[in-house]
Each structure stands twice: as structure tokens, then as C-alpha cells.
Amino acid sequence: MKPPVLNAYEVRNADYSVVHAESESDFDQFIAALNVKDGEKVIDVGGGYGSVMIRLLQRQPQVSFAYDLLDGGMFQLKKGEEQISALLERHQNTSVVRYLHQDAGELTLEPEHYDLVICKMFLHELPAHVQKKLIGDLYKIIKPGGRIVVWNPDLEAADHRFFASVIRKKDELAGFGSMVQNRHFLLNDDFRDLMLEAGFVNFQKLFTFDYHLHTINRLDQEFAGDRSKLTAWNEHILHIAHELGADTFKKLNINTNDDDIYINFKRGIFSLQKPVR
Questions:
Q1: Residue 3 pLDDT grade (very low, low, confident, very high; cuts 50, 70, 90)
Q2: Among 265, 243, 37, which Cα is nearest to 147's?
Q3: What are the φ and ψ backbone dihedral angles of 100, each rounded to 5 degrees?
Q4: Which of 52, 30, 20, 27 lies closest to 206, judged by CA?
Q5: Helix or strand run (H / E) with residue 238
Q6: d(CA 263, CA 163)
Q7: Which of 157, 158, 47, 57 has its CA nearest to residue 104?
Q8: Cβ atoms < 10 Å from Cβ of 51
Q9: How far is residue 142's CA from residue 81's CA, in Å, rounded to a whole number?
Q10: Residue 253 region, left (φ>0) first, then alpha (ψ -120 to 50), else beta?
Q11: Is the dihedral of CA 152, 76, 105, 7 positive or negative?
């Protein structure tokens, strides 16, 4: 019998804003899209160390609400609790925060409890069949009229296969076995269809922004300074980039600078609603 694959998020101690080159202006738009109000009940599903709550407290320290941070990695939750608790104290914010250690594929949450569900860069962490189940479960826990806001890779047919191959190779080299095994990146159309099939309505892509992938950013954050892994990743990217159509290659603005490869992928913010009965 093969040993179980270690959950990479129990050992992956990275600052994802650095890894993913997320700018503060990206978070400005995302926090504005969330539009969290006093007294609301909010859950951040697969929220890791609570980067959304941290940015929200920094921008809107006066807003107090009930916030649940749910993640399958205890390491990430403990990391989040330290930072969030410090910010709550600093801003004298009275939000009630719970840290829920649950596998997103096996949620045990109260139905029709939340006004807002946040899902930032998480759906793709799950196998396809678990994604479908999770979306159905999220529909159940949202109040009628409540919303879900999703920060997702913005993938169309022209760049989907390339993007998935780039990330999979990085995960293999970094030793993130659970990510190699589980990750399933959705085309925008497939994501929309899954959400509508679950019962959500009013699908909107609120905005798209640049995802500036610099391979060098992963050297210390994910390859532990091992330049041989960075070199192997770069070689893989350049090899498969030749399979891209000329228009897609140009759109992605792929270029190299010494041991760094830059690719301009996209990310999108999507919003849906649970119908009011």
C-alpha cells in the first residue's frame, strides 16, 4: 500500500502575495467587490492563513462581522490566527473570528448561515469531482440572497493547457505531491457551468487583472533556494511554449531575463448569488 500523500499546505510556508505577485491594488479591487458590512456572517473557504481578512482589516478596520476561516491545513490556520489576532487587537476591531480545520470536500456547516462566501484561489486545489461537490455544499450554506465571490485563474481555451502544465511542473519540482495529485484548473466556461448547475444565478465577471508570473519568485519561496529546480522549470516552460499559437504567445508576453521567465497570465473576480425564495 502506498503511503498517503502529504498535504503540501502543512509544509508550504510561503507568502503567496510574493509567489503570485499579487499587488495591493489587486486586493483593493477584491475587498471593494466583497463589500463586507457590519454584522454580516462571512466564511473564507480554503482561506489559508487569512490573507483576505488581513487585507480587509487593514483597509476597513471599523467594520465588525462574524468571520470563519476554513482550511484543511492546520499549519496555515495557526499562521493566520497569529496575524489576524494581532490586527484585531491593534484596530480594536470586535469581529468574531473562528478557525475551522475542515477538509473542503467534507464540510460540516450550518445551512443557510452565511451572507457571503469568499473563495480566493482555492477551487483549483481540488479534484474535479470534489469541486462539484464543494460548489453544491457552498450553495447550501449561503442564505437566500447571499453571495459568493471567487478569485480564480482567468483561463480560456488558448492558454488553459499551457498554464496547467507550467504549474504542475513547478509542483513536481517543489515536491508538492498533493498538489500534483489533486489540482484541477477550470476553464472559465466550466466554472460558470458548475456554479449555475448548483443553483447560483447572476453570474458576473467583475474584473480581470494581470497575474505577473516571475519564475524567480519561486526560488526561495518554493524551491528552497535550489537553482537546479528553477533551471529545470524554466527549461520546461520554454519547451512547451513552442506549442502555443503565435497570438497566445504574444498575448502572454513571455520573455526571459537571465534565470527568470516572465508570463502575463490573467486572474478574474467572479460573483454569483443564491436566489431569494
A1: very low
A2: 37
A3: -110, 115
A4: 30
A5: helix 227-241
A6: 10
A7: 47
A8: 19
A9: 24
A10: left
A11: positive
* Radius of gyration of the CA atoms of the chain, in A: 19
pLDDT mean over 146-155 = 97
Compare 11 and 210 and report the one with higher pLDDT.
Answer: 210
Residue with cell 473564507: 44
17 — alpha (psi -120 to 50), left (phi > 0) or beta? alpha
Residue 4 — very low, low, confident or very high, per pLDDT cuts 50/70/90? very low
Of the candidates 272, 271, 263, the residue with the CA atom closest to the CA atom of residue 29: 271
For residue 242, the tally of other CB atoms under 10 A from its CB is 7
Q: What is the mean pLDDT of the chain?
A: 92
Per-residue pLDDT tens digits for 64-105 = 999 999 999 999 999 999 999 999 999 999 999 999 999 988
With H, G, I as helix, E, B as strand and everything else as coil, classify residue 120. Answer: strand
Model confidence over 178-200: pLDDT tens digits? 899 999 999 999 999 999 999 99
Instruction: Cell 502543512: give the residue.
Output: 10
**The residue count for the chain:** 277
Q: Strand pairing partners for 147?
A: 116, 273
Cα(216)–Cα(230) distance, rounded to whole angstroms? 7
Largest Cα–Cα distance in the chain?
A: 58
Question: Which cell numbers in the block locate residue 231?
Answer: 533551471
